[in-house]
């Protein structure tokens, strides 16, 4: 049995149609050799290091991403700089790299 429409449904304007999404450009699939080379480079970069994870609010996330874009640097580099500045302000040796 079909659902009966309500009078209030007639008073509500219909939702505008959603715009069609543009197709995503095709990504170049990296070769297995370049993937493994990239994985090895990442592994070497992290050798002897520990991961620190921190959750921040959306505005802080946007702000650090924008700083990274403005300075043409990676977020990781800015976080390391911030950690070293914290160490320096507390009279510790700048160790983060």
Order of helices and strands: HHHH
User: Could you list the spans in which at least 5 consecutive residues all have pLDDT below 50?
Assistant: none
Radius of gyration: 25 Å
Strand content: under 5%
Count of alpha/pi helices: 4
Compile the SSE list and pairings.
Elements: H1 7-11, H2 32-46, H3 58-71, H4 75-89
Architecture overview:
This protein has a domain at about 50-95. It contains four helices and no strands. The chain has helices spanning about 5-10, 30-45, 60-70, 75-90. Helix content is about 50%, strand content about 0%. The mean pLDDT is about 85. It is mainly alpha-helical and about 100 residues long.
List keywords for this structure.
single chain; 4 helices; 97 residues
What's this model, at a glance?
This protein is an all-alpha fold. The chain has helices at 7-11, 32-46, 58-71, 75-89.
